Amino acid sequence: MKKTSPHLDDSFILNKLLESAYDGIVVVNQQGIITYISKAYTDFLGIDKESVIGKHVEDVIENTRLPAVLKSGKTEKARLQLINGDYMVASRIPLIKDGVVIGAIGKVLFRNIEDLNLLYKQINQLQKQVDHYKKAGGVNQAKYSFRHIIGKSEKLSDARTMAEKACMTDSSVILTGESGTGKELFAHAIHQESARSLKPFIKLNCAAIPAELLESELFGYEEGAFTGAKKGGKPGKFETADSGTLFLDEIGDMPQGMQAKLLRVLQEKEIEKIGSQHPVKVDVRIIAATNRNLVEMVEKGIFRADLYYRLNVISIRIPPLRERPADIDFLVPHLLDKICSRLGKYVEIPPGTMRVLKSYSWPGNVRQLENVIERAVNLAEREAVIVPEDLPETVTEIHDSQVKPLRETLEMAEKNAILTALNLSGGKKAKAARLLKISRSNLYERMNKSNL
User: Which among 355, 350, 347 is positioned nearest to 376, based on CA atoms?
Assistant: First the structure.
């Protein structure tokens, strides 16, 4: 007699999927009552499955945020949660039907931080292998694009828009802005999106090369041009960047003698190597950057006016971080993810620490912010949360000069209120008193006290 195969009903399959898909899963209804919890979760908690069905989730799971999700109706992805003295990583998803939250699901992604750190390290190792294979084809290529420019503030958006327009032309560009604002990032992005994107992107920091070596770095030299010259000579940055882009960082630090030679190359589109009698034609687009005031330097005769006008076809100012504090909300998660990936750690920054970061002026801009976050990631304790104590004192301290005594603040506010009322009333005391909702005699007393 032929045996029939057992029937696989939907509820059986769904139950098996829920039991095996995650390290743990719990479902609550609109009131926060547990309607389902997987065996993996109860084993993790060390409780009996049948005993918790019908109980409120806060009575079963320590520090649960499912009630908060029921109230907000918003998903919380990969958040830390302290259970039994250790941190795990969990996600919480509201169940919404016809616009109404009818329940929520909690999913355990990692039972402890060590598991997550191990995964980070494995992913990081794979990324290093991929980067290794990319290197052969990535020499002298731009590494960044516009997606690496993080922020949505109006000033940054204006700079990005101007840079995107610069991609559509071959004209020279000057990027201005304080140190650490991301000028090199913009230079990479402009080249990456330009018609020269498949050609070389060559960088030279004019401030990092001694004046006596700058000419050979830019234009190269022939064999035997000077004592110590390499056999066969050496190509300069212009020759290496032929058909591509040459990024001249810290152009304001270029010696005046070198400025004249650079101007000639830009005008004639040809270079002459040291020790050579024959010019070589080059096709190079120039993107220059500086944190100095070139207009002021031109007025003082420190920077050549003709070179400035040749370079300053498209000028883009990169705003400092203090002028776009709202972008810190986007920069911190981006930088944190990059740093954690490199260090093989998983760390979170809670709202309290974010408030501290947003209240600081960041004179070193994004570069300083990145350094501070990396320091904090390294100092964060095993619970993987960055607290204000992990930040440098320069970021967390409030200077006494920033806070005035309460009495002085109140007196200043009162004086300003009286002056405003007098201004609006045309100097008429009775009308000013009515605006301030005080008697005329009281107004006179306060005016005398404020020396008005």
Answer: 347
Two tokens, residue 424:
């609006």
Break the chain into its structural domains and give their ranges: 12-111, 146-317, 323-400, 406-449
Which candidate, 190, 81, 191, 182, places its Cα nearest to that of 141?
191
Residue type, 179: S
194 phi/psi in degrees, rounded to 5: -90, 175
**Rounded Cα gap, residues 63 and 297, in angstroms:** 60
* Torsion sign (Cα): 16, 17, 23, 25: negative
Q: Which amino acid is present at 94?
A: P
Q: For 360, what's the count of Cα atoms within 13 Å in the CB-facing half-sphere?
A: 22
Whole-number percent of the chain with pLDDT over 90? 44
Given CA atoms 394, 397, 399, 400 in this order, what sign does their dihedral have?
negative
Site of tokens 């034609």: 281
CATH number belonging to domain 146-317: 3.40.50.300
Triad 118, 144, 367: Cα angle to 5°: 75
pLDDT value of position 13:
61
- pTM for the whole structure: 0.61
Using CB atoms within 10 A of its CB, is residue 426 exposed (0-12), middle (13-18) or buried (19+)? exposed
